[in-house]
Specification:
Blueprint: H1 11-22, H2 35-47, H3 58-64, H4 66-69, E1 71-75, H5 82-88, H6 93-100, E2 113-117, H7 131-144, E3 149-155, E4 161-168, E5 172-178, H8 187-203, E6 207-208, E7 211-212, H9 213-219, E8 220-225, H10 230-237, H11 245-254, H12 283-292, H13 312-324, E9 328-334, E10 338-340, H14 351-362, E11 365-367, H15 378-386, E12 390-395, H16 407-423
Parallel strand pairs: 5-8, 5-9, 9-12, 10-11
Antiparallel strand pairs: 1-2, 3-4, 4-8, 6-7, 10-12
Helix pairs in contact: 7-8, 8-16, 14-16
């Protein structure tokens, strides 16, 4: 993690401010390392036995990381009880027992290392997401809920891991994915909000969206790829900044499309290929349409690439889908408040019925995909290949990238969609 000092700006400063805020500091998350952030860092360093120099280096980051991942480690001392440990960290006995799969919480062996969930949700709604923070969130969720597995299923152009979160023990596999498009990054925390609520409902044996989470867990396996395009998202949200060679390469590509704002208008992967035009489902037709619209070379959006499945992110998503043999998929995009459910004349059995349930739950409109957007997308390829229900959800309303202020309403709108995908697929 890079060293941060007074006067710096950007995504890493936002992460710093989130950690400080969760640690009890009253500061804004604005990405500016100003005087209030400096004073908060110095107070945090003093409280944690560090040199109060206001420089966020290796040791300070190490002390801050639990406030990003949502958990810390504790070595049990002689005479300690689970109750005293929970009180020390302002958490609950149940949370510690779940995280550590303790069959007898009344006895804990001295010297044992425990994972301690901290008293706040792991998933934040207060800052733009990048690949680094997304990985920390998944790490924290897996620590709190050990029945969640997280693994890599491929790599991006820049070598960033594409992460998959899986939960469930049933025989029906369901796949959710988000952020094929970089400036639609808000779909990543949207999916992660559901994942955290679902895991908590499973652990505490409660309902989610009016449905028993334990029943969903026993009938299905949810596979969630919350960040399909990490390089592009990092460009849009500032983790890749000016001076970085990839940033400058992207800016050069964007210069051929001066009407598209940079980097906020960037949808593509870091090579300038639109990943949701990279699947073998009418790819040649998509190419013809997009070339007629002027997207003839790599750039911020709508360039189809050199061939279907030519990009590593597309290859990884296709291989994952073949491997898991999904009964149903949902690809999250923004915006428009619409649900697309068919591809050309393919109308899988039950797909319209499930789509109607999703529309009723969300208030979104069940719609047929506009012709010029009907080809080479992930949903299109899935439906064509498997003749099974596949959906593109255009969440939220406005102009991309949608503001964080929409996220909580988007989640309220889509909770029923997430649940319906699991409940109606089995």
């Amino acid at each position: 993690m890079e060293v941060l000092r007074y006067g710096e700006r950007g995504g890493k400063v936002r992460l710093l401010q989130l950690a400080l805020k969760r640690a009890g500091e009253n500061i804004n998350i604005d990405g500016i390392f100003g005087r209030r952030t400096l004073a908060a860092v110095q107070r945090f360093q003093t409280q944690n036995g560090l040199s109060a120099d206001g420089i966020v280096g290796r040791l300070t980051w190490a002390a801050l990381f639990p406030y990003l991942s949502g958990y810390t480690l504790h070595i049990v001392a002689p005479g300690e009880s689970l109750f005293s440990i929970a009180k020390r960290y302002d958490t609950t006995l149940e949370a510690i027992a779940i995280a550590n799969e303790l069959s007898d919480p009344d006895y804990i062996e001295p010297g044992k290392t425990l994972k301690i969930p901290l008293p706040f949700p792991v998933v934040s709604v207060q800052l733009p997401y990048d690949s680094f923070y997304t990985a920390l969130v998944l790490e924290g969720l897996a620590a709190r809920y050990p029945f969640l597995s997280v693994r890599s299923f491929g790599n991006s152009v820049m070598g960033r891991e594409l992460l998959l979160a899986s939960v469930g023990v049933g025989g029906v596999a369901v796949g959710y994915n988000a952020s094929h498009h970089a400036n639609e990054w808000i779909t990543t925390p949207l999916n992660l909000l559901f994942l955290e609520d679902y895991l908590k409902a499973i652990a505490y044996q409660t309902d989610i969206g009016g449905v028993s989470a334990s029943e969903l867990y026993s009938k299905t396996v949810l596979h969630m790829a919350p960040l399909v395009n990490p390089d592009g998202v990092d460009l849009v949200t500032g983790a890749i900044g000016e001076g970085d060679s990839y940033y400058e390469q992207a800016r050069a590509l964007a210069s051929y499309y001066p009407s598209i704002p940079f980097p906020s208008g960037w949808k593509a992967n870091i090579r300038g290929v639109d990943l949701n035009l990279g699947y073998p489902a009418g790819w040649e037709t998509a190419k013809r349409i997009k070339f007629m619209q002027g997207y003839t070379r790599p750039g911020p959006r709508d360039y189809v690439g050199t061939a279907p499945l030519a990009e590593p992110e597309n290859q990884a998503m296709a291989a994952l889908t073949v491997e898991q043999d999904y009964a149903l998929t949902i690809a999250y995009h923004t915006q428009g408040g619409e649900i697309y459910w068919q591809f050309l004349d393919y109308r899988p059995e039950g797909a319209e019925r499930i789509g109607e349930a999703m529309a009723a739950a969300s208030g979104y409109r069940l719609a047929e995909t506009p012709y010029n957007s009907s080809f080479a997308g992930y949903k299109d390829w899935f439906i064509q290949t498997y003749i099974r229900p596949g959906y593109t959800i255009e969440a939220g309303r406005g102009q991309n990238p949608l503001p964080l202020s929409q996220l909580e309403q988007m989640y309220r709108d889509n909770l029923g969609v997430f649940v319906a995908g699991l409940n109606l697929s089995s």
